[in-house]
């Protein structure tokens, strides 16, 4: 009887191991994909396309130029919270190898004065620069199509922003709480504007093109606006003839 119970127990254990093997293999594969590597003051993970994503920076510099490569791998993305609460940072240059800036990537970096976003970046995720309350001016290149929820919310020193032709969506609360924002250029490529994108509207002036989504948005929400015709809009060089 005891031997029979032992046999049943062993059989059950073998069946359990057999059943769990695919799950364990999947978890192992996932962990392998998420393995974190070190290179200088950066930590990164590998991407499926052979590039890498910065997931953490532990340096003490106030001005940095993020490298285009780490250990010979192209830096393709700034990961979620990679520079979160990095209060020492004042100036950041993002390399033109980067295509996306992750969620909360620079959130709460409250001494950040300037950031150079290259025309390789296509998306700026939710809360990417939220609470960067010393950021005073902003230029978004035309390569960026999506600006996420609360991406620049509570950037209280932000006074002007230029969105280049190519941006298609401003998600909810994108510039909410930017109470010193006085001018923002919104191109006619923008086709979607979320809710409560702006707060403290009394002194804000939007530069829009006639018949655009931005003009309709301003009319509906009571925002001040003036016209800028397509030929006058800024290009990807940072030139801004409307100011």
Which class do the helix and strand fractions yield? Answer: alpha/beta
CATH topology: Leucine-rich repeat, LRR (right-handed beta-alpha superhelix)
Order of helices and strands: HEEEEEEEEEEEEEEEEEHE
Helicity level: 10-25%
- Count of DSSP helices? 2
Shape field: globular
Q: CATH class, please?
A: Alpha Beta
Please report the distance between the alpha carbons of the first and last residues. 91 Å
CA radius of gyration is: 24 Å
Q: Would you identify the CATH H-level superfamily?
A: Ribonuclease Inhibitor
Second rung of CATH, namely the architecture:
Alpha-Beta Horseshoe
Instruction: Assess the beta-strand content as a share of residues.
Output: 25-35%
| Count of beta strands | 18
What's the overall average pLDDT, rounded? 85
Number of domains: 1
Low-confidence stretches: 5-32, 234-243
Biggest sheet, open or closed, and with what strands and sense?
10 strands, mixed
A few lines on this structure:
This protein has helices at residues 2-33, 213-221, and strands spanning 36-39, 42-46, 52-57, 63-65, 69-70, 73-78, 91-93, 100-101, 114-116, 123-124, 137-140, 146-147, 160-163, 169-170, 183-185, 192-193, 205-208, 224-227.
Structure description:
With 243 residues, this protein is α/β, with parallel strands linked by helices. The chain has a single domain, classed as Leucine-rich repeat, LRR (right-handed beta-alpha superhelix) (Alpha-Beta Horseshoe). Helices cover 17% and strands 25% of the residues. The protein has 2 helices and 18 strands. Strands 1, 2, 3, 5, 6, 8, 10, 12, 14 and 16 form a 10-stranded mixed sheet that branches. Strand 2 and strand 3 form a beta hairpin. The C terminus is likely disordered.
């Amino acid at each position: 009887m005891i031997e029979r119970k032992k046999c049943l127990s062993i059989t059950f254990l073998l069946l359990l191991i057999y059943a769990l093997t695919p799950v364990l293999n999947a978890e192992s594969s996932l962990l392998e994909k998420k393995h974190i590597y070190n290179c200088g003051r950066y930590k990164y993970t590998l991407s499926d396309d052979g590039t890498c994503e910065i997931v953490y920076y532990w340096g003490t510099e106030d001005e940095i130029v993020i490298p285009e490569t780490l250990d010979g791998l192209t830096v393709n993305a700034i990961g979620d919270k990679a520079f979160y609460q990095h209060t020492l940072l004042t100036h950041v240059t993002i390399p033109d190898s980067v295509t996306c800036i992750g969620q909360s990537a620079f959130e709460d970096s409250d001494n950040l004065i300037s950031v150079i976003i290259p025309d390789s970046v296509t998306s700026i995720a939710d809360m990417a620069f939220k609470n960067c309350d010393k950021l005073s001016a902003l230029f978004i290149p035309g390569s960026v199509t999506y600006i996420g929820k609360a991406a620049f919310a509570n950037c209280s020193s932000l006074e002007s922003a230029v969105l280049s032709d190519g941006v298609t969506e401003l998600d909810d609360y994108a510039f909410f709480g930017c109470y010193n924002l006085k001018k923002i250029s919104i191109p006619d490529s923008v086709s979607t504007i979320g809710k409560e994108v702006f707060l403290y509207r009394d002194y804000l002036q939007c530069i829009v093109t006639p018949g655009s989504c931005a003009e309709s948005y301003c009319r509906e929400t009571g925002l001040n606006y003036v016209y800028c015709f397509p030929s006058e809009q800024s290009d990807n060089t940072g030139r801004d003839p409307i100011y």
